[in-house]
Amino acid sequence: MCIVGAGAAAGCGNTEADNGDAEAHSTEPAPQLGARARQVADAWDGSKAAEAWHEGYYPMEAVVQLPENGLRSEADRRA
Fold it and tell me: Are 29 and 9 a contacting pair, CB within 8 Å?
């Protein structure tokens, strides 16, 4: 979880830097941002919020996924 936040803070680069203009923008996070990210990550570990997250159920898609063309009749739907 901590790595995701740090990766999002660092960004994915930009087109100006990719065009060879190394001085335009840096993809490196500011030192303060990195320190803050570490502080937030450390506060998350062992917190009540982290405990609730780990014990919870968070589906990313519909819980029930019907088979494609699998329900051929009303009896199939009821089952």
Answer: yes
Q: Between 50 and 68, whose confidence is greater? A: 50
Cβ pair 70, 76 in contact under 8 A: yes
Q: What are phi and psi of 78, to 5 degrees?
A: -65, -35
- How far is CA 12 from each of CA 9, 18, 27, 72, rounded to the nearest angstrom? 9, 11, 7, 47
Query: 79: buried, middle or exposed (CB in 10 Å: 19+, 13-18, 0-12)?
Result: exposed
Backbone φ/ψ region at 54: left (φ over 0), alpha (ψ -120 to 50), beta:
alpha
Task: Tell me which amino acid residue 30 is.
Answer: A
Predicted pLDDT of residue 15:
47
- Place 17 in a pLDDT band, splitting at 50, 70 and 90: very low
User: Dihedrals φ, ψ of 22, to 5°?
Assistant: -65, -25
